[in-house]
Structure formats: structure tokens, C-alpha cells
Amino acid sequence: MSARSRLGVVLLTALAAFSTGLCAPVAAQPAAPHTAVLDGTRLQQTKARLNRGDPQLRRAVKALTARADKWLDQGPWTVVDKPRPAPGGDVHDYLSQAPYWWPSQPPTAGNPWGCPYVQRDGERNPEVDSGTDRQDVEKTFDSAYDLSLAWYYTGEKRYARKAGQVLRTWFLDPATRMNPNLDHAQFIPCKYDGRAIGIIDFSQSYTSVVDAIALLDTGAPGWSGKDRTGMTEWNSAFLGWLRDSDFGKQEGAAANNHGTFYDLLLAGLASATGDKALARRTVLDARSRRLAPQIAADGSQPQELPRTRSWHYSTFDLVAYTRLAAIGRHVGVDLWAYRGPDGQSLFKAVDYLLPAATGAAAWPHPELEFLRYAATDVVHAAADAGDARARRAVPLLQAPPGGDLWALRPAAEQLDSIAG
């Protein structure tokens, strides 16, 4: 065979191989998770970058898996394990105690609680962490979120299986499940069997559980269609209670962080159960019902500043706002773009925190325990939304304990838990 002929054969072989490669099936990338707060497409892109060896993301995953590893040998927790049931007598009812209320008398046989209870704002009564479900529900929420994220980014089955066990035990298994109501949240001994403001026990962080479920729904081992259906049914029942109960209506009318967090929970549950119209309406209404009356022209939050923990509550309220804005993105509402009649905006509210958040100036309001990193996530959120001042501040932020995980879960968390 001549050299020219041999060259022709080589070219034809190469062309055939090239054509076959073009027609060969490409492994499908898993669908982006249908999250309520987190941006599922962004998570999908982050996972792809991680798989290509991004060194910054690898360091963040190491911090995330360190958190997740601590949960593997803990739990699962259940609402039926408390020493005594809620005032209604049903062990499946959630029970928590008002954190800032204290006994005014020494306990006696005739007055075992030391009643009457008196309020001491910002001072947490340690007895609220024993005898109720408050600490266990926080562990349930936090572990489900950390474990689901760890599985999503690493593919390690042990994380998904543990997350599924945690969720099934608290919400689904008939012997251990919680009733979908908060009738006895933040009760005050000898005074109230439950209070509307106790809804914040869930509105504070339950939307993280909603996103954890969405992550597991992308194909997690040990998480079944029955589990998915069960959680949708539980969330639908809880959403009905939140909308229709007297406590839900009272909390929805609150004019401070309680109202903002109520909207977050309402919109998150609506999104998770397929009611996009309710989610959209909730975010839209928050502009005039929440943002305009609760944020001043200079960006301060007047309802939060008189508190003994004014820095905590100012950052805390913005966790709700920025998470609500993230839900808005999914339903076509840009809450960051809103400007109130006096120029109020989420950007101004975050910018008001920047001097203290970056260490450039002291926080000029009452605060029993100033923790600079409490603002880290909300500054990240503003920077991502286009705030140039916040973007310049990001390198100056203080990382929270355990590291800054924004790159992996870009939605604000309450970083300075008052639960200890």
C-alpha cells in the first residue's frame, strides 16, 4: 500500500472515531434540586466545579463534612422523648418554653415552678433546654441540613441515610412523629399553654429542612418515594395550620422579626407544596407589609434596636429577609430591587451593619454579647445581589465558628445561635 493510501486509511479511521464520539451518549447531569431558598442551579454548578477539583470548594467541603460527621453518631431525635407531654396531653405535640421568662419565687412543693414567671429580655433561662423539645428540634433541623448538603456534594451514602433516618423519625414514623402544629410552643409555666410567638421555633430555620428534602429528592440512597410523599403531606398539613390557626394569624400580624420570619415560613412551605401563587403573593406583600414599615430610611431596624440584643436581632431579622428574597427569585419577585417611600431597601439595611460587621466601628446600640460574625451571611447575600459596598466588605468579614460555608450553601443562616 502506498504512503498516500495509508494516509487515507488513517484519516478515514480518525474521522469514523470522531463521528462515533459525537454520536455517543453523554452521561446526563442530575437535575438541579427544586429548592425553596437555595438556588438549585447554582448548587448544581458548584458541584460541577467541585468535581473538577476547585481547591477553594474542596476546603469548604472539608469544613462541611466535619459538621456532618459529628451528626453521624447522634440522634435520631423524637418529639415523644420529653419527660412530660405538652399541656394538651399528647406526646406527639411539640413543646417548648419561653426563653426569656424566669421564676420569681423559689420552687416549693406547692409551687414547683416558682411562679409567677417574669420576663428578662435577652437573658435565656437554662431550664428551657430541659424537659421540652426545643433543643432536639434544633438538632433535627441542623443535622438534616448538614447531612443532606454533605451527601449532595460528596455522594457518600452514609450522610444521606442518616439524614433520612433523622427526618423519618421526627416527622413520619407513626410511633415517633410530631403532630403538624405548634399549639404549645414557647409556653410560660402557670401562665400560657402556648403562644403565637412560639412559631418562630420553626420559622427561624425550618426552611432549611425544606431544602434538605429537596436535596435528598435528587436521588439520595435510602430516601424513598414514600418518604417524599409523607413529607409533602406533613408540610401541607402544617401549612394549613399556619394559615388558619389563631396563633398563625397572630404571628402573621407581628410588626418585627416575628412577622418577617412568619412570611419566610409561609412562603417556604407554599413553595415546597407546589403553591407557587401563595409563595409569590407572600413575597410581594412583604414589600409594603414588612420592609417599608420595619426598615428606616437610614437602613436601621427600629423595632430591633431597643432590644438588649440589638445586633443579634438586627442580623437575625435580615436572615429572614434575605431568605425570603431568595424564595422570591424562584417565583419572579426581586425583593432586593424594592425601594420604600423613604428609600428603604434591603441593601440599606445590610449596609447599616457594615461598619460593625467589618470591624471598622463599634456597634452603637445595646448588645449583651456582640459577635461580629453574626452578620457574615447577610453581607454575603447582599454582595451576591449586587451591593457594591457589601462586595467590598466580604474580604473583611469574620468567619463563623466552623468556617464560612457560603460557597456551598449560599443562603443566610443564623450564625450566632442564642440557644448555646
Task: Kindly state the number of beta strands.
Answer: 2
Radius of gyration: 24 Å
Identify low-pLDDT runs: 7-28
Overall geometric form: globular
Mean pLDDT: 92
Oligomer: single chain
Largest pleated sheet: 2 strands, antiparallel
What strand line-up does the widest sheet have?
1-2
Structural class: mainly alpha
User: Helix amount, in percent?
Assistant: 40-55%
Q: What does this molecule look like?
A:
This protein is mainly alpha-helical and 420 residues long. Helix content is 50%, strand content 1%. It has a two-stranded antiparallel ribbon with strand order 1-2. The radius of gyration is 24 Å and the shape is globular. The model is unreliable at 7-28 (pLDDT under 50).
What's this entry about, in short?
The protein is mainly α.
Task: Write a concise keyword list for the protein shown above.
two-stranded antiparallel ribbon; 15 helices; mainly alpha
Which secondary structure elements does this structure contain, and how are they paired or packed?
Layout: H1 3-23, H2 40-51, H3 55-71, E1 101-103, E2 117-119, H4 134-154, H5 157-172, H6 200-203, H7 206-216, H8 225-244, H9 246-252, H10 257-272, H11 276-294, H12 310-330, H13 346-357, H14 376-384, H15 388-393
Helix pairs in contact: 3-4, 4-5, 4-7, 5-8, 7-10, 8-9, 8-10, 10-11, 10-12, 11-12, 12-13, 12-14, 13-14
